[in-house]
Design brief:
The chain has 229 residues and is an alpha+beta fold. It contains seven helices and ten strands. The chain has two domains: 130 residues, ATP-grasp fold, B domain (D-amino Acid Aminotransferase, Chain A, domain 1); 69 residues, ATP-grasp fold, A domain (Dna Ligase, domain 1). Helices cover 29% and strands 28% of the residues.
């Protein structure tokens, strides 16, 4: 099944929601071949399992349609290394307005953070964006854009158009990073944003390693026309 068909099916299952839950978005991205952290969603009022299929320490995130920015809503807890700490973090996060539950995820090893995104520009149409991730995209504005969809070669050129692209190839003795995994992610984002079913997709950060790339946060904004694929 093509990416657009998979996306249409996914969106049809969430037609009554104005904000798609992070765990659902990540599950969908995993189906497409984008790596995400292993995670477990615990709904509000559900008991926390005594045995979790995850490795400590954990990252605990609130799931709320009203928390458009988990950082601004103080909706993330890091370094949770015990069930007691998990229960405390969960109780704290459930006080956030609109909380539907919490998402538990394994802590990803440190790496180089980048952002991969897609928007539908009113003038140019669907566009893929790449740049340094996390706070760096806000501080340095080191980003590059390309019309979507894109090929692997387009993705490589997009990477090299940024100053941060030198980190991908290895810089001052650092190992080179998995450019192929990054390019694959960028191509998939290009397919999604050019489907006509989304207004925006934001993977920030995507953490790069010498082998592999993992999207730690993922948001999508469906198009108002998503019900008519």
């Amino acid at each position: 099944m093509e990416t657009r068909e998979l996306l249409a099916t996914f969106l049809k299952a969430h037609t009554k929601r104005t904000s798609l839950p992070e765990q659902e978005v990540k599950g969908f991205l995993r189906e497409l071949g984008i790596a995400v952290p292993r995670g477990v969603f615990i709904p509000a009022h559900a008991p926390c399992p005594s045995a979790l299929p995850l490795s400590w320490p954990l990252v605990v995130k609130v799931v709320s349609p009203l928390a458009t920015s988990k950082t601004e809503a103080e909706g993330i807890r890091f370094g949770i290394d015990s069930h007691e700490g998990l229960e405390l973090a969960r109780a704290d996060l459930m006080r956030i307005e609109g909380a539907e539950g919490v998402l538990l995820e394994e802590t990803a090893p440190p790496g180089v953070e980048v952002i991969v995104g897609g928007i539908v520009d009113p003038q140019f149409g669907p566009v893929v964006m790449f740049g340094l991730g996390g706070l760096f995209v806000e501080l340095f504005r080191d980003v590059a854009f390309a019309l979507a969809p894109i090929t692997r070669d387009d993705a490589y050129r997009l990477i090299d158009r940024t100053r941060g692209g030198v980190l991908i190839h290895g810089f001052r003795g650092k190992p080179s990073l998995d450019r192929e995994a990054l390019a694959k992610t960028m191509v998939i984002v290009g397919e999604l944003i050019s489907s006509g079913l989304l207004e925006e997709i934001d993977l920030n950060p995507v953490v790069l390693y010498p082998r592999g790339a993992v999207a730690l946060d993922a948001k999508v904004k469906p198009s108002p026309l998503k019900a008519c694929p």
